[in-house]
Amino acid sequence: MTGFGKAEGSVNKKRVSVEIRSVNSKGMDVNTRMPGLYREKELDIRNMLTGNLERGKVDFNINVESSEGMRSTQINKTIVKNYHAQLKSIAKELKAEQQDYMGIIMRLPEVFKAEKEEFSEAEWKQMLKLIEAALKKINSFREKEGSSLEKDLRKRIDLITKLLSEVEKDDKERIIAVKEKLRKAVEELAAKDKIDNNRFEQELIYYLEKLDITEEKVRLKTHLDYFLKTMNENSPGKKLGFISQEIGREINTIGSKANDADMQKIVVQMKDELEKIKEQLNNVL
After folding, report:
1. Angle in degrees, CA 64, 70, 71, rounded to 5
2. What class is the 3-67+123-137 domain?
3. Closest CA to 160 of 266, 29, 23
4. 126 - beta bridge partners?
5. Domain with CATH 3.30.230.10 in the chain
6. Per-residue pLDDT reduced to its tens digit, 218-238
């Protein structure tokens, strides 16, 4: 599920921002970016993200802006003295003119050294508060999106339910038309006196059963009600996916048995709404 959360604050006199972004994904895929100082806590951070977000492709970023003067750079005196002694020795050996070597020395490797930052438990506790705040914001974002998704899914299930009512209405007229068609066919055969009554009854039963959608209508209504009921459960995503497959199976069967242009149009509308539902289910946890 898509979402975004950001928290900013001061951690050990440093300005820190924590950002968490997520997009749809079938599983949990976490990508982290942070200063090397905090790498030792990466596993803890990943566990926090997994425990709070459940699913999605998640990008986690810690950005640190050190306060002025926080890190000082020092001259490595030992290295400088060593460089100076070597240069003087070489100049003397080559009988070269003595000069001020400091300009050369200050451009040589390892002359400057930066103080190593230390990562304390107190600093980690401050960082934890920022991460928790960012997680709270991204979850709030996802809850709002989830509420919108819920409304959309309920609307589309209601539309399919209404379309099912139209199918039931058309089905009555369709059955009347089928019976009339069969009656005329029987009258024509009777006039030719070529009817095998047993054979005719078998064919009639087979034909009516082939067109009968009573069971499909009942099962479809049951699946639609079950879908709405399941939406109230925690983390219903996969379950709703399975139910939508069953809904699709019943709609397809009704379409294959319809043998009626008007009913086929309704079935197409039902399929269209179901496809939109399946697309939205990719966002549901």
Report:
1. 90
2. alpha beta
3. 266
4. none
5. 3-67+123-137
6. 999 999 999 999 998 887 888
